Automatic annotation (TrEMBL):
<keyword id="KW-0594">Phospholipid biosynthesis</keyword>
<keyword id="KW-1003">Cell membrane</keyword>
<keyword id="KW-0865">Zymogen</keyword>
<keyword id="KW-0210">Decarboxylase</keyword>
<comment type="similarity">
    <text>Belongs to the phosphatidylserine decarboxylase family. PSD-A subfamily.</text>
</comment>
<comment type="pathway">
    <text>Phospholipid metabolism; phosphatidylethanolamine biosynthesis; phosphatidylethanolamine from CDP-diacylglycerol: step 2/2.</text>
</comment>
<dbReference type="InterPro" id="IPR003817">
    <property type="entry name" value="PS_Dcarbxylase"/>
</dbReference>
<keyword id="KW-0670">Pyruvate</keyword>
<keyword id="KW-0444">Lipid biosynthesis</keyword>
<feature type="active site" description="Schiff-base intermediate with substrate; via pyruvic acid">
    <location>
        <position position="209"/>
    </location>
</feature>
<protein>
    <recommendedName>
        <fullName>Phosphatidylserine decarboxylase proenzyme</fullName>
        <ecNumber>4.1.1.65</ecNumber>
    </recommendedName>
</protein>
<keyword id="KW-0443">Lipid metabolism</keyword>
<keyword id="KW-0472">Membrane</keyword>
<dbReference type="Pfam" id="PF02666">
    <property type="entry name" value="PS_Dcarbxylase"/>
</dbReference>
<comment type="function">
    <text>Catalyzes the formation of phosphatidylethanolamine (PtdEtn) from phosphatidylserine (PtdSer).</text>
</comment>
<keyword id="KW-0456">Lyase</keyword>
<dbReference type="InterPro" id="IPR033175">
    <property type="entry name" value="PSD-A"/>
</dbReference>
């Protein structure tokens, strides 16, 4: 299915298949299986071995990397992460995405913007994707704490990585990968200067975390607080589109 064009008129061929495992997770899955086989095959401790073997399957599942159908509308900003929209608030973007970094490329402008926070539990896919097509202008890693990623202060206190993507027309989107209580490593797969497609994989965060997205001024979310997002598929916002949207939890 990868690379195939599908549309809302029925063009293309879609079907379910087992998702592949991200290379970063294969070694952890193999290690988990090896550990579970020791009590099963050597010590004959089935009461321990079988739960460990089931946990090994969970490790492989955590690193699953399913294909996604990415909307190609030019003004669409897609979700960079799977998970629940846990916060929508107005803030100043992080200084790492705003200040002059000496690269010759401008950062995000000064002034408050809408920040959408997507919380990923250990059951969500943890592959992160580019919200727009463009060039990676910044990739800034910040060491920090590991407080609950669902808390607002995690944006300023936790270990995190800021990414700035700039379109050909100069519009830029900043987003931040944030480690959480269990997450202990942010793994990028891009670097400054790389050109990415909308929805392209840009990295992952291991074992539960959060991603913040900073919308450009004059753009409101097209999603609701509490809504579930699918990375590369859910449209977070449409550039230049504003307006209140309401939903009912039921």
């Amino acid at each position: 299915m990868a690379g195939e064009i599908l549309d809302n008129q029925g063009r293309g061929d879609a079907g379910w298949s087992w998702p592949p495992i991200h290379p970063e997770g294969r070694k952890y899955g193999v290690i988990a299986v090896a550990i579970s086989l020791v009590p099963l095959l050597i010590l004959d401790w089935e009461i321990i071995g079988w739960p460990l073997l089931m946990l090994s399957a969970g490790v492989f599942a955590f690193f699953r990397d399913p294909e996604r159908v990415v909307p190609q509308a030019d003004n669409a900003i897609v979700a960079p992460a799977d998970g629940i929209v846990s916060l929508i608030t107005t803030v100043e973007p992080p200084p790492e995405l705003r200040i002059d970094d000496g690269s010759g490329h401008a950062g995000l402008p000064e002034g408050p913007v809408t920040r959408i926070s997507i919380f990923m539990s250990v059951f969500d896919v943890h592959i992160n994707r580019a919200p727009i097509a463009g060039t990676i202008r910044r990739l800034v890693y910040i060491p920090g704490k590991f407080v609950n990623a669902d808390l607002d202060k995690a944006s300023e206190e936790n270990e995190r990585q800021h990414i700035l993507v700039e379109r050909n027309d100069g519009i830029a989107i900043g987003f931040t990968q944030i480690a959480g209580l269990i997450a202990r490593r942010i793994v990028p797969s891009v670097k400054p200067g790389d050109t990415v497609a909308k929805g392209q994989r840009v990295g992952l965060i291991r074992f539960g975390s959060r991603v913040d997205v900073y919308l450009p001024a004059g753009t409101d979310p097209k999603i609701l607080l509490g809504q579930r997002c699918i990375a590369g598929e859910t449209i977070l916002a449409e550039l230049g589109t504003q307006g209140l949207l309401e939903g009912i939890s039921q």
